[in-house]
Amino acid sequence: MVASILDGLEFNHTAEACRLHEIFRGLLNRDFHAEKPNQKWVTDVTEFSLFGEKLYLSPILDLHSRDLVSYTISDRPVLGMVTSMLDKAFEKIPDDTGLILHSDQGWQYQHKQYQRMLKKKGVYSGSVVKTKI
C-alpha cells in the first residue's frame, strides 16, 4: 500500500536527510545485514509533495527482510507522528529483545519522550543522542 502511495512522488531531501545514508553507514559499520528479524531497524522522516501539498512519512524498516514494520503519514513533522509509529512497531515485538533502532540525529529522535519509549521497551538507539532521561 505505501509503495503505491509513494510511487512517482517527488521527494524533497533536505541536507539532513541526504546525510542519512552516511550516518547509517557509520552507525551500522556498513553492515546493513541482519541475521534475524527484529534485530536491526532503521527510521527517518521524509518530506514529499502530493498534489502540491507537503506530507511527511515516518517509516521503520527491518534490515533483515527490508519489510516495512510500521509507518505514519502526517501533514506536519511533529513528535506525535514518530511516537505513534513507535507504538505501532512496538506492538509487534516483546520487551527487551536487544533490537537496535538506527536513526539520524533529528530532533524527534533526540527528544526525551522518544528516548524514554526506547528505553522502556528495551530497544537500543542507534543514533548518538546527548539527552538525559
From TrEMBL:
One of its GO terms (biological process) is DNA integration. InterPro entries: Integrase_cat-core, RNaseH-like_sf, RNaseH_sf, Transposase_IS3/IS150/IS904. SUPFAM superfamilies: Ribonuclease H-like (SSF53098). GO terms for molecular function: nucleic acid binding. Residues 33-133 form the Integrase catalytic domain. It comes from the Bacteria. This is Integrase catalytic domain-containing protein. It comes from Butyricicoccus porcorum.
